[in-house]
Amino acid sequence: MSTNEKLRVDKYLWSIRVFKTRSQASDACDGGKVKLNGATVKAAKSVNVGDKFEIRTPARKWLIEVTGLLANRAAYSEAIKYYIDNTPEEDKLAPAFTPSVFQTGKRQSKIGRPTKKDRRSIDGFMEPEEEEA
């Protein structure tokens, strides 16, 4: 990419594979999850070499420094050449927050109320057998 071309923040973050889709990158910018040199940034802002990003994704937190501009999405092995990852190790390895009790409103399979098959076997077990004379 030549030096006079401009590259949007959302397109850059998508191309270096921080986000899976460009719309996710744009939504993160709009939601205040992306900071450029300490200030929240809109998706259309231009990226320059030397900029420092602080990004919060659902999976992890990123602290990156731009070393080159990549306009189109490339393989991960190529994409990592365009930034320096300054993220502390504890933020790289920290799993996303998972609540201790996960309640979706639906019961888990095979737990709770018996199925029709279970009910039939219970009924058969509970009924006294007919004695033949």
From TrEMBL:
Chain residue ranges for the region called Disordered: 104-133
Keywords: DNA-binding, RNA-binding
Pfam families xrefs: S4 (PF01479)
All copies of domain RNA-binding S4, residue ranges: 7-74
Composition-biased stretches (Basic residues): 107-119
Matching InterPro entries: HSP15, S4_RNA-bd, S4_RNA-bd_sf
Signal peptide feature range: none
RNA-binding recorded as keyword: yes
Keyword field contains RNA-binding: yes
Record family assignment: Belongs to the HSP15 family.
Name of the protein described by the UniProt record: RNA-binding S4 domain-containing protein
